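Table S4 entry, Glutamyl-tRNA(Gln) amidotransferase subunit D.
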Amino acid sequence: MEIGDVVRIETDKGVFEGLLLPSIDENVITLKLKNGYNIGILKENIKNVRVIKKGEKPKYELPPLNIEKKHKKTVSILSTGGTVASKVDYSTGAVHPSFTADDLIRAVPEIADIANIEGRAILNILSENMKPKYWIKIAEEIKKEAKRADGIVITHGTDTMNYTAAALSFMVNADFPIILTGAQRSSDRPSSDAYLNLLSSVIAAKENIKGVFVVMHETSDDKYCLLHRGVKVRKCHSSRRDAFLSINSLPIAKIDPFSKNIIYLQEVERSEGSKKVEINTKLEEKVALIKVYPGMDGEIIRYYVDKGYKGIVLEGTGLGHAPEYVFDDIKYAIDNDVVVIMTTQTINGRVNMNVYSNGRKLLNLGVIGCEDMLPEVAYVKLMYLLANYSLEDVKKLINKNMVGEINYRSDFKAYGGNYGL
């Protein structure tokens, strides 16, 4: 039997007849029943299978696009996994997964009015499978694309998009905008946010700005998108379309995808139009991010030290604390030349280890407090610093603002994501 066939499956729980669909689990058969519902049947429970009718394989013959290249800026869209433009045949479940400039224009035709669009896939992974070596790959592809693009949009799964945005912020110095975007809901769903996120990203990518940014919905409504700095943004909800918030900072800008207008909310570095790009892809991968919690076993810290790790980022409680019963383990790490830095798991607010005795004791041990950095940003920054600087310089640079990752004063108007826009 093949995808699209009508099949009859007998199990101990009954007989099921329907269209055979693609399945993400090799141990499960997925059927679309006559009533329109899909069901999954474990292969081990199947007693008999019979093909009732062979299915016709879908053919996609898309009309040619004759889009004239006008005197507009060029935006390159690089895909790291999945596809923004996907054609789903709901009778068979088959998907047309190609990713080209033509596919993108067919999916979001308005982007062709904004810029000349180029597009290609550079990776095909789920974002939870992202690794530092893929960050390096993306940085290298950005450098290649700079020869023809005035701005770059990177489509990315939302689960780890803020990690990638932080990594690119440190590794890539480009005189043009690099925009990461994704979708909380897939493009074939009526409630998808993919359309407006991509449209808003192309609008931002042709702006006269430089740096790494994230563009996602402002609210759950289809009204505006926000442009976030790549080192100040976090995914704060698992499924809402407005999941991404700037932390301890206002967003850079508010984007109206319908009028194509951008309202800047804070200053941003402007591009000189040179298309220059420099990359430094040296990363020390032996850096750990450890969450502090009641009852934690300090052996986890010693484990990383004994495995040769060079840095540890602690995601501490409150103003930057850890339980006293792991102090000896922290000292063990520092005595072995492991850089230990402290962030906070509270998301909003700053680290201040001088307020309580616990924090002061940690400082005396040699822990470095990161006053204003998200744990994942501190994690990526420490990887970058350890690969490029001496141990003493790393300790000096960890609290120096390099790419906008540190605000020396928190913007409390942004607390809780209520920007008051």
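The radius of gyration is 25 Å.
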